[in-house]
């Protein structure tokens, strides 16, 4: 199935969007609503990127919302999906040790982000605190 084909679940949404787009005011209102909602979701995702969790997934969800009405967002979303799929396929073809190393690097990155977030937000050095509490 290509990106242009629709699944049965998408058809009612696209049919409804097409009905709204038929009027000039409906089209403009839809464009504004999708633009505001998509931008808000992307902004939330960007705020959440440094923290462990779904920050990037939320950014992609916001881009998917924008892709409903904006051609540039649709092209960017399609490109991003394609690159993410290529990356995941590449990882799946690697030996399990390479996958473990990639996962470990991801965990180290997340640990560093948590440390930096706590240090910047609360002025607490987690390494010092853990050492102190362990009695070292």
Automatic annotation (TrEMBL):
Q: Which InterPro entries match?
A: CHP02611, Uncharacterised_PGPGW_TM
| Record-annotated membrane-spanning stretches | 28-49, 55-77, 98-122
Q: Name the Pfam families for this protein.
A: PGPGW (PF09656)
Listed A to Z, the keywords are:
Membrane, Transmembrane, Transmembrane helix
NCBIfam families reported in the protein's UniProt record: TIGR02611 family protein
Official protein name in the record: TIGR02611 family protein
Q: Which organism was this protein described from?
A: Actinorhabdospora filicis
Question: Organism classification, top ranks?
Answer: Bacteria, Bacillati, Actinomycetota, Actinomycetes, Micromonosporales
């Amino acid at each position: 199935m290509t990106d242009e084909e629709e699944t049965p679940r998408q058809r009612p949404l696209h049919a409804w969007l097409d009905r709204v787009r038929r009027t000039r005011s409906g089209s403009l209102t839809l464009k504004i609503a999708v633009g505001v909602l998509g931008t808000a979701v992307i902004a939330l995702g960007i705020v959440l990127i440094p923290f462990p969790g779904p920050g990037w997934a939320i950014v992609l969800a916001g881009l998917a919302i924008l892709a409903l009405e904006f051609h540039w967002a649709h092209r960017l979303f399609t490109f991003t999906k394609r690159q993410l799929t290529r990356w995941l396929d590449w990882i799946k073809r690697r030996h399990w040790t390479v996958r473990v190393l990639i996962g470990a690097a991801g965990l180290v990155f997340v640990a560093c982000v948590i440390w930096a977030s706590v240090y910047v937000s609360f002025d607490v050095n987690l390494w010092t605190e853990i050492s102190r509490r362990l009695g070292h």
